[in-house]
Amino acid sequence: MASEEGVVLILETKRNPAIWKKFDLCLMSDNHEMARCKSCGKFMKAAANSTLKKHTDKHCPVTKAKKEEKGEGSGSSNV
Hints:
By secondary structure, the protein is of the alpha+beta class. The chain has helices at 17-20, 49-59, 61-70, and strands spanning 7-11, 23-28, 33-37, 43-45.
């Protein structure tokens, strides 16, 4: 990035609470909104809930580590 961006304000949202309880909606210094993962701190576009859900389900390193500790990340079924 050419300029250093920072969080100016954390906004409240009434969007899908099951997804947004894991994210902060942040107003950035360049006046656009980004979603910040509360677990790993990664910033993503706040436009699509599906992208945020995919992050927490498959890509977040903190969530992944917790799932592996519980034995949920191995891909095997208990059937």
